[in-house]
Write a structure and sequence with these properties.
The chain is of the alpha+beta class. 35% of the residues lie in helices and 22% in strands. The chain has 2 domains: 245 residues, 2-Layer Sandwich (Nucleotidyltransferase, domain 5), CATH 3.30.420.40; 176 residues, Nucleotidyltransferase, domain 5.
Length: 507
């Protein structure tokens, strides 16, 4: 029996999972780190803390599995859209600017409204939005020209980790295709996007497929005690690999993830162009693309509500952290208490509707200025109504993206759910009812880390193709949709979409 350690570097924590070629999780570990944010829209991570988290989780998993099976490799997943400016020695000049950073919003809006922006979206498959490294570069060039000029390279979180561990700059097609700088049909940098950003290809990393491998860690990391010559597989982005790790790899099979944020994605054989520019098309392999959309607002909205408004504190009854990175069956306060309490409220919240745009919004509205709204408040509404309205609002956002997917690519057959929200039966049933689709839960909360391991098996020839990875995933729960609740949700969804349409200019 062989295993690969899949490492997923996320926005709030890094997770490592030892996953065998028989589909068994041997061990897992996770490390959280602080986010640096403020009212300007800043949302940054410390690159050194990210590296420490990778090393710490890798070491923890390796130590607990060293005698259980043969370690075949280490493979990576990472959050998309990050940007780090580094000097000629590779020293960071900035923190890691994440997808959630809203400071480039002005420059994104100007580009989006231009003919160049429309051409770049068509070539790159990345919607023009503050999240993208392309727009981050525009902002950095305009607001910090001296720093911009000193930067020898512009890289992502995973590229920084790869360079520190293995001593070379490489970026997989999957991460690169989420930058707004890659032509997703030619698999080369998009010249128009580079020109708009004011950089050249030499300031970017070498483009490689997700199966790209290297070995020989830098001397400072040899204390990890890894086997000599152990292959490191570069892997892909968290979104694309979540589809792989969730078994949503065939046409019509759709992955839905809710963690800190949320996303819904479908695998396609070619990049899809949405004339309304609502969805992305990112590369998984040379023959497989993952199309869909991500919302800025998922479990972070529960965090805001329970901690920020209710004043809940970790360890108190009915309070704590969101816990949305946990595995199914684990209990932490908000999902164990507040979300269960929301189940006492009927579907539709007796007319209460919530727009969850606390951090602006990505798909499908792509509006960094979008704001959160509770609508329809009456004296009948109590705390559980507001909690349920939050869950429904996040679900409506994903349903709206799903509708865009169906219009562009084709019908959703069923949904594979992943992420920490799979611990909540209330929320899983809600997704089935809102979409009116069967929802499968695989029992794998860390779908991106599992997907990274599967990409590693494919790179090493342990599995013949990525479709074969579906046999490694076991469904542990199924949720059937209810027609009556779906009808109620449809009425509130109509109000949901109309609310944003009417309020966006005021926002």
């Amino acid at each position: 029996m062989r295993y690969i350690i899949g490492i997923d570097i996320g926005t709030t924590n890094t997770k490592a999972v030892a996953y065998t070629d028989e589909g068994v999780v041997l061990q897992s570990a996770g490390v959280s780190y602080p986010v640096f944010s403020d009212e300007s829209g800043r949302h940054e991570l410390d690159p050194e803390l990210l590296l420490e988290a990778v090393i710490s989780t890798l070491r923890a998993v390796r130590e607990k599995t060293v005698d259980k099976a043969e370690l075949a490799g280490v493979s990576f997943s990472c959050a998309m859209h990050s940007l780090i400016a580094v000097d000629a020695a590779g020293k960071p000049l900035t923190r890691a600017i994440t997808w959630a950073d809203l400071r480039p919003a002005k420059y994104a809006k100007e580009l989006k409204e231009s003919a160049a922006g429309r051409r770049i979206y068509r070539q790159t498959g990345t919607p023009i939005h503050a999240m993208s490294p392309l727009c981050k570069l525009l902002w950095l060039k305009a607001t910090a020209p001296e720093l911009f000029g000193r930067a020898a390279r512009f890289i992502s979180i995973k590229e920084y980790i790869w360079w520190r561990l293995l001593g070379s700059y490489a970026v997989d097609h999957s991460i690169a295709s989420a930058t707004g700088l890659l032509d997703i049909r030619s698999f080369d940098w998009c010249e128009e996007a580079l020109a708009v950003a004011g950089i050249h290809a030499g300031q970017l990393s070498e483009l490689v497929p997700g199966t790209f491998m290297a070995s020989g860690v830098q001397p400072e990391f040899r204390s990890l005690g890894l086997p000599d010559g152990l292959p490191f597989i570069i892997g892909g982005s968290d979104g694309c690999l979540a589809n792989l790790g969730s078994s949503a790899i065939r046409p019509g099979e759709t992955a839905l993830t809710i963690g800190t944020s949320g996303a819904i994605r479908m695998t396609a054989s070619a990049p899809e162009y949405d004339v309304r520019e609502r969805i992305f098309s990112y590369i998984l392999t040379e023959r497989q693309y993952v199309c869909g959309g991500a919302t800025n607002n998922g479990g972070n909205v529960i965090q805001w509500y329970t901690a920020g408004l209710l004043g809940a504190k970790a360890g108190s009854s009915g309070a704590g952290k969101t816990g949305l990175s946990g595995a199914p069956g684990e209990t932490t306060d908000p999902l164990d208490h507040w979300v269960k309490e929301a189940d006492t409220v009927p579907a539709g919240c007796e007319g209460l509707v919530f727009l969850p745009y606390l951090r602006g919004e990505r798909a499908p509205v792509w509006d960094a200025d979008a704001k959160g709204v509770f609508f329809g408040i009456r004296s009948v509404h109590e705390q559980p109504h507001f909690m349920r309205a939050i869950l429904e609002g996040v679900s409506y956002s994903l349903y709206q993206v799903g509708a865009s997917l169906e219009e562009t690519i084709g019908p959703i057959q069923h949904i594979y759910a992943s992420g920490g929200f799979t611990r909540s039966k209330t929320w899983l049933q809600m997704i089935a009812d809102v979409f009116f689709k069967r929802v499968y839960v695989t029992g794998i909360a860390d779908a991106s880390a599992i997907g990274a391991a599967m990409m590693g098996f494919y790179a090493l020839g342990i599995i013949a193709d990525l479709e074969a990875s579906a046999g490694l995933v076991k469904v542990v729960e199924t949720y059937e949709p209810d027609a009556g609740r779906h009808a109620v949700y449809q009425e509130n969804f109509r109000i949901f979409t109309e609310l944003y349409s009417r309020l966006k200019d005021l926002m």
